[in-house]
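re: ur question from earlier - yeah i can do the single chain one, its not a big deal. heres the input i used so u can compare w yours
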Amino acid sequence: MDLHITTLAERPELQGPMWDMKHLWPEFMMYDPVGWSHMGKIVTDFPEYVLVATDGVDGPFVARAFSVPFQLGAKGRGELPDTGWDQVLLWAFSDLRHGRTPDTVSAIEVTVDTGALGQGVSHRMLAAMRDNARRLGFSDVVAPVRPNGKHLEAASSIHEYAFRTRESDGLPHDPWLRVHVRAGGTVEKVAPASMTIGGSVEQWRRWTGLPFDTDGQVDVEGALVPVHCEASRGYAVYVEPNVWVRHRL
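and the output i got, formated as tokens:
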């Protein structure tokens, strides 16, 4: 594949294909309220931090990668937040609104079109994100990583899973964490409440095709941990854990 990666600022005509690409995100992931209200604003407010990739300059759309700049050293911060993905998005747009100078870039998403999976595209998009942050003058990239193998063992502790390694080479057990570490990242900590998605049981039924008719934990395909259902009260909540990885550039 002749992967051609640029910023969206350089190729704004790719915004349509970027949103229309076929992906494997579970339906319920589209309804995180922080993501719902902020993802589109990344495109308009931070186009230099959005990477787009095509197969050849004029070929089909292949992948996208979103990141945002923020000030980790701002008063009251200093540490990567336990509320991970949601919090870093809120910080980034708060900093933009208040004119704070960013000191760190956070990865937000790397998504590969389903037709291009298995060809190393995600590795190259991550490398390009690091290079882009360096080009923009940053020395730190952090990432609230969604470990893509965790859904296969939703009942396992994220605190154990995040630091589990392979005996053969000492690299992370999780494939996506392994990509980050191979790229130079360091697994730093768990963000136990990185994304919170609440909805009525009717909404969860539409999102998943499951009955959501009993109080308790519900295993949902694609979820990293079970969804907590309060069927008797008419709602369910998913609290997704992520893993913070730091890349020194």
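Strands lie at 3-7, 50-55, 61-70, 104-112, 140-145, 185-200, 216-218, 227-230, 235-248. not sure if urs matches, ping me
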